[in-house]
Amino acid sequence: MALLNENYLKLKAGYLFPEIGRRVKAFTEANPTAAARLIRCGIGDVTEPLPPAVIAALHRAVDEMGQRSTFRGYGPEQGYDFLRSAIAQNDYRAHGMDIADDEIFVSDGSKCDCGAILDILGDRNRIAISDPVYPVYVDTNVMVGHTGACDPSGAYAGLVYLPCTPSNGFIPEPPSEAVDVVYLCSPNNPTGAAATRPQLEAWVDYALRHKAILLFDAAYEAYITEPGVPHSIYEIPGARECAIEFRSFSKNGGFTGTRCAFTVVPKSLKAFSSTGEALPLHPLWSRRMTTKFNGVPYLVQRAAEALYSPEGKAQVRGLIEHYLGNAAVLVAGARAAGLTVYGGVNAPYIWVATPSGVTSWQAFDRILNDANVVITPGSGFGSKGEGYFRVSAFNSRANAEEVSRRLQLLKW
Ligand code: MLT
């Protein structure tokens, strides 16, 4: 008799975005006229085409794959040297951070890596997670058995939740108790808040004191506009000893469908065996990748490399400015509609308080039915997300302007 992984039975009904997809499908099937004017600002999926530098690199790489002399089969599982080097040089060393090429591990996505990282961590760690939070951090811990059951508010027993509210600017504070692993996401999905240097210094100090590890998700780093906001946890002294950083080409280069990301595991980062011996995590992650992963396609790694060329960098800047321009339009529209709005300055998400007495899912239904716009209900990101909704700025400018207009027409 084959047994199943009962941890999966603890998961809430569905992963948030498929659940939204299911509701939107039901709505559009029942309302074909409304379906034609539907605008999707739910999942943070890019809408603009790949930058020309990427397309050119893809064409060149396709031609190489068609010639015996330049054809490539299996590549290095950790990523080709040309890409690891371009990342380490451009994203880290050029900004004064001491990150070696072989501390970069190229992958097919930060979502995948955020889940996979649990393979190399022990199963008795006390885990702290922001609330609201990107649901992947929670669900992957549930799947591997790091939690108990889910209570009616959606909180899982065994996790330490760090409330993120207007009173702390949606940036979690280090808890008074000791935890071993902390997920941080800055700029933040879903709230759009970005941690300041003193806030990240406090986290690095906490992690070093408690021998804890910070899992730092910087997928939205390219959206930082405010001077002084750190782009990487490694800008903070001591972070090489306590932090793993996840980054992605999805939201800067538009790679959500092309798939390429990377994780930084410094060689100086250690965790403890059950006998208390401090051991480096770098060889474990390398071992994990070589065993469970076959690497990102050569074509895609050449495409990612092109994002670091002078023209690639300029084209990425253009994409970011486009989406941040949308965010500004959405912020202005939601404010003109009388709503309280956060985010949208260092992130492609705006985080909106629902009108008094309206729950997140009620807001979702109202905005879907009356404005024919898909947003993401804040409660899908955790109990402290109740009373909010997230609007994604990934769209055409015309759609952002239309959403802004429709929000102002809504009667609550
Ligand atoms: C989101 O909408 O929160 C993101 O697109 C999800 C992701 O990046 O996986």
Defining key terms:
36% helix, 412 residues, seven-stranded mixed β-sheet, binds D-malate, 15 strands, 2 domains, 12 helices, Aspartate Aminotransferase, domain 1, alpha/beta, 14% strand, four-stranded antiparallel β-sheet, Aspartate Aminotransferase, domain 2, globular
Overview of the structural elements:
The chain is of the alpha/beta class. It has 2 domains: 13-49 and 311-409, Aspartate Aminotransferase, domain 1 (Alpha-Beta Complex), CATH 3.90.1150.10; 54-308, 3-Layer(aba) Sandwich (Aspartate Aminotransferase, domain 2). The chain has 12 helices and 15 strands. Strands 2-8-7-6-5-3-4 form a 7-stranded mixed beta sheet, sandwiched between helices. α3 packs antiparallel against α9 and α5 (110-116) packs parallel to α6 (135-143). The radius of gyration is 21 Å and the shape is globular. It starts with 15 loop residues before the first helix and ends with a helix. Bound molecules: D-malate.
